Structures are given as C-alpha cells and as structure tokens.
Amino acid sequence: SLKAHAGSTGIDRARAWLADIDPRHESAGETLTAVILRQGSWEFEPQLWVRAGGRRFRLDFALREYKVAIEFDGEGKYTGPEVMEDQLARQAALEAEGWVFVRLGWADLDDPSTLLRRIAEAVAVARGCETVVLVAGLPAAAESEGVDRTSFALPQQQLDLIEAVTSVNPR
Predict the structure, then answer these.
(1) What is the pLDDT of residue 163?
(2) Which tens digits make up the pLDDT trace of 75-116?
(3) 47: region left, alpha or beta (phi > 0 left; psi from -120 to 50 alpha)
(4) Is 81 left (phi over 0), alpha (psi -120 to 50) or beta?
(5) Which residues are within 8 A (CB) of 164 and not within 5 positions of it... i.e. 6 or more apart?
(6) Is residue 62's pLDDT more than 90?
(7) In Å, what is the CA distance from 124 to each residue of 66, 78, 79, 114, 148?
(8) DSSP character for 47?
(9) CB 120 within 8 A of CB 66
(10) Most exposed of 35, 77, 124, 130 (fewest Cβ within 10 Å)?
(11) Are 61 and 73 in contact (CB under 8 A)?
C-alpha cells in the first residue's frame, strides 16, 4: 500500500503515475499518450465508440467537441495487409463523417511538444480550413523495378479517402 510507504523516496512520483493509469487504455503506449494529452488544453475521452457508415468503431482517444481522433499505433497492431486495409477503410468512413485523425507511434511519444502541436493543428483543421491538401500514391509494396504495372490506379481505400475528404471539404 502507498500509505505504508508515505515519505519514502519516489512515493510521490508513484502516486502521480498511478493517477495516470486508466483501465480503458489498452496498452502502455495509450497510457503514455494520455499522460501527454493531459498536458494539452483539450478534454479527451479514451476508447470512445462512434458510428460511421452504418458501423460502430472505437477510437483510442477522441476530442469529441472537435471530432479529432487520436490513434496510437503500436508495433504489433498491423499483423498483415488486410488489417491495414481495414484500418484505412475505418478511417475513411470516419473522415467522411467529419473526423480528423492524428496517428502516432512510439517515436512520437519522445517529443510531447511536437505531438501536442500536431493535435492543435488537427483541431484547427477540424474547425474548418480554406484549402485541403491530400497526398495519395501507391504503397511501397506496389513499387518494384522487376515487375511492370498493369495499371496506375490508386488502391480503392485511397480513392475512398479522397472521396470522403472532398465530400467534407470540396476545396
């Protein structure tokens, strides 16, 4: 018990860390993300369920007021191409409903100020912007010097994303 160790070296720091532990966080990365989010000025909700395209999806963190989704992508999350395709389709469906995404990984947690700035930029985008710049292209797996392509068409999930973004902001 922490009470039994009152006054011991490190006990105050242990109490502070325990305050950051939330059983809704699904990984250590999400817990550390929450620690950084608390440094910002936004109210966030962990593990928020939302509807889009007739389906329910759960967001790691959400700034519901601004429709900003913050997703921590750990190293073991994408176990195959179909998992990545599902994530991109999920994101496209949510973006079609006006959600703006901030995706982050372990390296992003090393620089809290940059992460908080990225979230602030996402909030600004969610509030409305004059022009959208969307960059699309073929994934690295489709690029090869040893094989000729039969088409230059973008993958369907990127076409879906382009359609979703232009439906929210045609500029």
Answers:
(1) 63
(2) 766 677 788 888 888 899 999 998 999 999 899 898 888 888
(3) left
(4) alpha
(5) 92, 93, 95, 96
(6) yes
(7) 9, 29, 33, 15, 42
(8) E
(9) no
(10) 130
(11) no
* Whether 126 contacts 68, CB under 8 Å: yes
Question: By the 8 A CB rule, do 89 and 157 touch?
Answer: yes
Residue 1 has pLDDT above 70, yes or no: no
Q: What tokens does 53 get?
A: 């395209």
Residue type, 15: R
Q: Write the CB contacts of 118 (distance below 8 Å, at least 6 apart in sequence).
A: 102, 104, 108
Separation in Å, CA 79 to CA 33, 84, 105: 22, 8, 15
- The answer to whether the CB of 102 falls within 8 A of the CB of 70 is yes
Cα distance between residue 127 and residue 156, in whole Å: 28
Q: Tell me if 132 sits within 8 A of 62, measured CB to CB.
A: no
